[in-house]
Amino acid sequence: MVLKIIFLIIIIYLLYRFFGGKIEVPKFKKKENISEVDEVKELEENTLVECNKCGVYITQKEAIFKNKEYYCSDCIKEK
């Protein structure tokens, strides 16, 4: 009887090892969190804003922020 139980345990173990044998534990990667922050920054930079002087829409990344207002580079050159 004891030999049958030991034999059954060995068979179960071998089947476990044969069909994967590893229980994957989810790992938290800092790179994923950093990439989410980068995506938010990229989204903010690609947001369109209107030039306060001429009304042209430009990305927030290209806009010049002066006196709490956005300006395009052409309007800043004219000043």
Secondary-structure blueprint:
Elements: H1 2-18, H2 30-45, E1 48-50, E2 57-59, E3 64-66, E4 69-71, H3 73-78
Number of helical runs? Answer: 3
DSSP, total strands? 4
Sequence of secondary-structure elements: HHEEEEH
* Cα separation of the termini: 96 Å
* Radius of gyration, CA atoms, in whole angstroms: 31 Å
Poorly predicted segments: none
Structural class: alpha+beta
Strand content: 15-25%
Helix content: 40-55%
Biggest beta sheet attributes:
2 strands, antiparallel
Number of domains: 1
Shape from CA axes? rod-shaped
Widest sheet, order of strands: 1-2
Average pLDDT score: 79
Please, could you describe this protein's structure?
It is built from 3 helices and 4 strands; from the N terminus they run ααββββα. It is α+β, with helices and mostly antiparallel strands. The protein has one domain (2-78). Strands 1-2 form a two-stranded antiparallel ribbon. β3 and β4 (69-71) form a beta hairpin.
Question: Main attributes?
Answer:
79 residues, alpha+beta, two-stranded antiparallel ribbon, rod-shaped
Offer a concise description of the structure:
Helices cover 49% and strands 15% of the residues. The protein has one domain. The chain is an alpha+beta fold.
